[in-house]
C-alpha cells in the first residue's frame, strides 16, 4: 500500500504542474497501447484542481485514448507477433487474452464497451481487437462509448461533488466501474429479450 500511496501522491503533484495537460494527453494515449497507469488517476486530481474544466479534461482524455486505441488496434492487426504479444506477456495478461477472445466471438467489438469500463486494461482490448480483426468502425464506436462514459462520469462526479469524490474514487473506483458495467450488460440483455 505504501508504494500505491507514493504513486498517488506523485500523481497529485504532477496534476498541479504547468505541463499537466500534456502529461494527461500522453498518459491517455500511451495507456491504450502499453503504459500501465490509467489516465483516470491523473484526471481525478486535475479535475478537482479545476472543476469548471473537468469536462474539457475528460474530453481530452477521451480523444487521446482513442488515438492510442487506434495505434493499439493496428499493432494487433499488423504487429501482433512483433509487439502485441510482448505487451500482453509483459503484463501477464495471457489468460485475459482468451477471455477477450471469447467476448469478441460472442459480442464482437461491443465487448470493448464492457472491457473499457472494467479494470481489464484497455491496451489488451485495443491490441486484441486488431488481432481478431474486429470491424474498426464498431471498435471506435464501442471505445468512444466506454471510454467516454468512464471519463465523463468521473468529470461529472467531480463537477457536482468536488473533494468528496476524491475519497470515494480512491476507495471504490473499481467497484464503481463494475457497477456501471453490470448496468450496461443488463441493458443489452433487456434489449435482446424485450
Task: Outline the structure in words.
This protein has one domain (19-193). The chain has 194 residues and is mainly α. Helix 1 crosses helix 3, helix 2 packs parallel to helix 4 (54-78) and helix 5 (80-90) packs antiparallel against helix 8 (122-131). It has helices at residues 2-15, 20-31, 40-49, 54-78, 80-90, 94-107, 110-115, 122-131, 136-161, 163-193.
Observed structural traits:
mainly alpha; globular; 194 residues; single chain
Estimate the global geometry from the Cα principal axes: globular
Strand share of the residues?
Answer: under 5%
**Number of helical segments with 4 or more residues:** 10
Number of DSSP strand runs: 0
SSE string, helices as H and strands as E: HHHHHHHHHH
What is the CA-based Rg, rounded?
17 Å
Biggest beta-sheet profile: none
Structural class comes to mainly alpha
Average residue-wise pLDDT: 82
Helix content: over 70%
Distance between the termini: 46 Å
Stretches with pLDDT under 50, minimum 5 residues = none
Number of domains: 1
Question: What secondary-structure arrangement, pairings included, does this model have?
Answer:
Elements: H1 2-15, H2 20-31, H3 40-49, H4 54-78, H5 80-90, H6 94-107, H7 110-115, H8 122-131, H9 136-161, H10 163-193
Helix pairs in contact: 1-3, 2-4, 3-4, 3-9, 4-5, 4-8, 4-9, 5-8, 6-8, 9-10
Brief sketch in words of this structure:
With 194 residues, the chain is an all-alpha fold. It is built from ten helices and no strands.
Amino acid at each position: 500500500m505504501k508504494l500505491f500511496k507514493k504513486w498517488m501522491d506523485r500523481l497529485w503533484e504532477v496534476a498541479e504542474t504547468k505541463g499537466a495537460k500534456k502529461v494527461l494527453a500522453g498518459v491517455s494515449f500511451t495507456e491504450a497501447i502499453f503504459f500501465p497507469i490509467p489516465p483516470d488517476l491523473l484526471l481525478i486530481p486535475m479535475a478537482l484542481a479545476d472543476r469548471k474544466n473537468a469536462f474539457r479534461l475528460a474530453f481530452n482524455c477521451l480523444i487521446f485514448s482513442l488515438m492510442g486505441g487506434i495505434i493499439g488496434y493496428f499493432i494487433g492487426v499488423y504487429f501482433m507477433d512483433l509487439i502485441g504479444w510482448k505487451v500482453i506477456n509483459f503484463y501477464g495478461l495471457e489468460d485475459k487474452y482468451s477471455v477477450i477472445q471469447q467476448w469478441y466471438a460472442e459480442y464482437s467489438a461491443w465487448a470493448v464497451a464492457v472491457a473499457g469500463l472494467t479494470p481489464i486494461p484497455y491496451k489488451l482490448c485495443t491490441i486484441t481487437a486488431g488481432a481478431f480483426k474486429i470491424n474498426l468502425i464498431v471498435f471506435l464506436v464501442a471505445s468512444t462509448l466506454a471510454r467516454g462514459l468512464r471519463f465523463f462520469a468521473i468529470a461529472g462526479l467531480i463537477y457536482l461533488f468536488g473533494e468528496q469524490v476524491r475519497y470515494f474514487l480512491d476507495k471504490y473506483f473499481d467497484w464503481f466501474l463494475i457497477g456501471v458495467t453490470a448496468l450496461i450488460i443488463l441493458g443489452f440483455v433487456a434489449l435482446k429479450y424485450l
